[in-house]
Write a structure and sequence with these properties.
globular, 3-stranded antiparallel beta sheet, 74 residues
Length: 74
Amino acid sequence: MEGKIRHLTQRELADRWNKSEATIERYRSDGVGPVYLKIGGKVMYRIEDIEKFERACLFSRPAEAVHVGPVRFP
């Protein structure tokens, strides 16, 4: 199906980032990380939101990241 939006589960995002599920839960609780969907109690992340978050965390030199706090998205 063309144009279908792909979603990742919390486990899949944890695997993608080589983090534990608990870390992903903490990011969500702290308001840090990509925006997410919660439908019927299930948390899902859209690929486009994950990629947007990853781009915001991308740096080409260490000096660029020195004064940056947590990346928060509404």
